[in-house]
Each structure stands twice: as C-alpha cells, then as structure tokens.
Amino acid sequence: MKTKSGGRKQKDTESGASLVETAFFLALFAPLLMLGTFEMGGLVYASLEVSDAAHAAAAYAAQYYMANSGSALPTQSQVTAAAENDAPELLSMLKSGTQFTATIATGCGTGSATTGNSVPSCGSGTLPYVQVSAQATVTPMIQFLGFIKSPTLASQAQINLVE
C-alpha cells in the first residue's frame, strides 16, 4: 500500500492481478496437462503389460520344456495363449483391426535365435534358450483430433532352458 502525503494509505490498483493471471493460466492449461499425464500413464501401463506377457510366455515355454524332459517346446498358439492369459486387460486396449502377437524362437548360448519351437541342440557347456517376442498396437485412451497415433509396443524375453 502506498501512503499519501497526509499519512493516509492508498489502495494499490494492481493488487491481485497475478492471482487472476494464474487462475486463467491454470484454467487453460491444467486440463491439457492432466490429459497428457493420463495418456502417458496409459501407454506406460500397456507397455508394461506387453513386457510382462512376453516374460510369462517365455516362462511357460521353459516350464513346458522341463515338464517334457527337455524333448519338446510348446506350439506357437500355446505361447500366444500363455501371453494373452497374462495380460487380459491389454486385449481390450488393442486398436481395432490389430491383434496381440507373441512369437517363439530358440537358440544356443549367445547365438542368434531361430524362429520356431524346435528344441535346440547345443554343444556341451552351452545353454539352450527360448525367446518370446510380444507385440501389440494399442489405441490411445484420448483421441484428440488425430494428434496421438496408435503406437505399436514390443517386448522380448529370453529364458535359459535347464533340465
């Protein structure tokens, strides 16, 4: 507050202006920030679901291998079913016209994997492994004028096959 020459206080004409400006700013941008945070949270959740599904399918393949005394691996459809069973919420997030896929591959040691469910024959001291790749194209929760595209999320899990 300013004082006049007579000692009386005079009101400041700009008091509260910054409060009004802050209120306008928050009214305009807070909803956008909240929607963006909500959308990113949904995409992170979907990404975690794809990753968990790949790992669950690889674990299923390793257990199947052990249950069959190291002589067989599950089929492609069994691996896909194991991945889908681990992430049922993900299936509702898929973009229409797309599907969740999980593919199985096998290999030895640090070598590259070969697609398919054949049991690898590795040399002594080299561990065979099973690798599952999962992929899903999800629909964004908030579709605002087509600015947010449908991302394709992918993950891969690898587990050594030990009897």
Characterize this entry briefly.
With 163 residues, this protein is of the alpha+beta class.
**H/E element sequence:** EEHHHEEEE
| Largest sheet: spatial strand order | 4-3-5-6
Helix content: 40-55%
Overall tally of structural domains: 1
Global Rg: 28 Å
Please work out how many helical segments DSSP would assign.
3
Textual characterization of the structure:
Strands 4-3-5-6 form a four-stranded antiparallel sheet, with helices on one face. A two-stranded antiparallel ribbon has the order 1-2. Helix 1 (about 15-65) runs antiparallel to helix 2 (about 75-85). The mean pLDDT is about 85. It has one domain (about 15-160). The protein is elongated. A hairpin with a 5-residue loop joins strand 3 (about 100-110) and strand 4 (about 115). The chain has helices at about 15-65, 75-85, 90, and strands spanning about 1-5, 10, 100-110, 115, 130-135, 150-160. The protein has about 160 residues and is α+β, with helices and mostly antiparallel strands. It has three helices and six strands, in the order E-E-H-H-H-E-E-E-E.
